[in-house]
């Protein structure tokens, strides 16, 4: 879903990040508010005032999204669900769960927390605006507050639509799950509805553009529809992957004939004989089967080219971590989760400090595809 994340801050242990695509949305929101929305509904202000209202409104929008997703995350943590963090991106924001909810109740409460929080925030902002009107605050401030009240009510209503993976779709899934006791079936139904809703938004967006009802609105409707449609299909696929791999250990796709690098060779030899030959993004550095650490192009790039023959791999080796290693007793689901969290496509299998094998995302996906073809109906 995301490209490069930029960390912003941490809030009660949750990391808040921004995807680079968010800056596109921020610019569009500021332009739309300052050039169209506020001048249309609140006349008589200067262009500078409208610009500041647009900037303030955009900041309020993203603060509202963070508050919405933060409430999701709090409830998720209450029910033991690990959260990667909150990320703002071009279509808003998302609280990134690393696992599926463990019960219909947990799913329902986590999903409904977002819309409820938006309604509460809208109510609080409405009360603040009433105070502002009574105290005769500057009109631009009260106008921005009015916009944020409407915005948060709209966020609540939109997210309650029964289209997975929107909050309403998750509420629907929790109800279907509770009724039939089958998470896979409930996810399939909710995903199909989400996909259908996404298609509806795409069609409406195209009609808006073709019939001249609004080019920008039409394009955004189509883009949001494509996002919801793709997210629905991806969510169902991820559930199938986790359920299919559940119970499998990593030895099913672990390779024991690992290409390792001795610590004594030069950096020049490493580049020519390993990186250029095997095209791996990371190599294990070993003395025999004893794992000393790992090395990647990132370490090599820190050394000037003319020094490659003067330094050895042992001079650059970095310790291994939980992000690139896994024990042979671990499950396939855990391996896939680590790869998803870190972006690493290769994990070293380590037992008592010794390298016993390696697993790659490519091999895992081949195994997953084969098992789904044989077992999943």
What distinguishing features does this structure have?
single chain; 377 residues; alpha/beta; CBS-domain; 3 domains; 4-stranded mixed β-sheet; 3-stranded mixed β-sheet; 10 strands; globular
Trace the largest sheet across and list its strands.
Answer: 1-2-3-4
User: In which range does the helix fraction lie?
Assistant: 55-70%
- Average pLDDT level: 84
Strand elements, count: 10
Largest beta-sheet characterization: 4 strands, mixed
Order of helices and strands: EEHHEEHHHHHEHEEHHEHEEH
Number of helices: 12
Low-confidence stretches: none
Please report which band the strand proportion falls in: under 5%, 5-15%, 15-25%, 25-35%, 35-45% or over 45%: 5-15%
- What's the N-to-C terminus distance? 27 Å
Q: How many distinct domains?
A: 3
Query: From the alpha-carbon coordinates, what is the Rg to the nearest angstrom?
Result: 25 Å
Shape summary = globular
Counting helices, strands and paired strands, the structural category is alpha/beta
